Amino acid sequence: MIRISSQQVFSSGINRLQELNSNLNSTQQQIASGKRVNKPSDDPVVAARILKLNQELSRVSTYERNVSLADNRLKQEENSLTSAVDVIQRIRELTVQAGNGSLSPNDRKSISSEMKERLGQLANLANTRDASGEYIFSGFQGSVQAFQQNDEGKYVYQGDEGQRVLEIDDGVTVPISDHGKGIFVNVPAAVAGEHTGPTDGTFISGVKVVNEAELTAAFPGSVPDDITLQVDNSTPSQVLAFDSNDPTVTFPVSPADYQSGETFVVAGIEASITGADPGATPAPDSYTLKINDKQSVFGTIENLIAGLDSIEKGTPEGRAAYEDMVAQSLVNLDNAQESIVLKQTELGGRMNAVESTKSFLADSSVYTNEIRSQLQDVDYAEAVSNLSFQSFVLQAAQQSFAQVSQLSLFDRL
Q1: The whole model's pTM is what?
Q2: What is the dihedral sign for C-alpha 121, 126, 131, 133?
Q3: How far is the C-alpha of 350 from the C-alpha of 7, rounded, in Å?
Q4: One domain for residues 179 and 117
């Protein structure tokens, strides 16, 4: 026969009541929080899985913020470049108007005045800032204004050539900026002619590429060099052409016989030389065809404005200089537009990558939340049923304990 002391009865009853009360409180907490697992001890295995899922959601949330930042930066750059193309197109239209031979000096000044306004508008676009106040076309130097006017009033690039990148997923990065030097400054320039002396009153004009294939074929496997032209004193005089960096490399000229003011073609480039003196001493006149120059779109527009304001068309040399300025400016403006359009195409590819990553992260977030919900969220119907049952059991235990606690051997004496 096992003897049970009153102390054992009381301890056992109290422990049972505490256990039932703890279970009831746990169920109440589940209903109040909506979570089946509120602390690791509720279910250690599930709690560990929920922790990993929370970490995954935190990672996804961080990348979603990066995706939003990248998307905003790229869209802002695209909008700025689209507006820049429109401005350059308007300046091109004004340049075509400026080529009209019937314009009066006042007409030219009127065109020049609008070009000045458009130049300022283009500079404002190139100096676009993001939401944090940084210049988007300054490379890594976001606090530095991309294009500033120097002492001569010409726009000069002040940033660096850095390109910012942002990680939008594990191992996935996307460039979110482009420096203005590559977009607005390092633009291929139209082929131009320059008289390098020594005789005054002679000039080269009408320089333009008429056959790209011939120009490419003239410099196989290498970047084209400048071409030097001279008019010799043979009878009849002939135009000689050779590589500016290697005089031993010569190019055929068609027609070879020199006629002042008449056009000729060398390496796919058309030009004319006026007033050359084959017998000039100590050396014949030289002319250079500049093939690989770069131009800033700001410089092109500034030269246009200066030419409209200053070039006098009263002499053959003045008329030729003015016509060359217009023709070369049109080519330069076309090249500037092409440079920006190519960058817009590149931006489109980046934006597609950002959009794809955005969709992937959103899907990942939904999937992870669903799994976490299955593990963590409480079944209210089951929890309410458990709460009712546990409350009933606790009440019964309390009543039973109350009756047992009143039993005493003294009641039997």
Answers
A1: 0.75
A2: negative
A3: 77
A4: yes
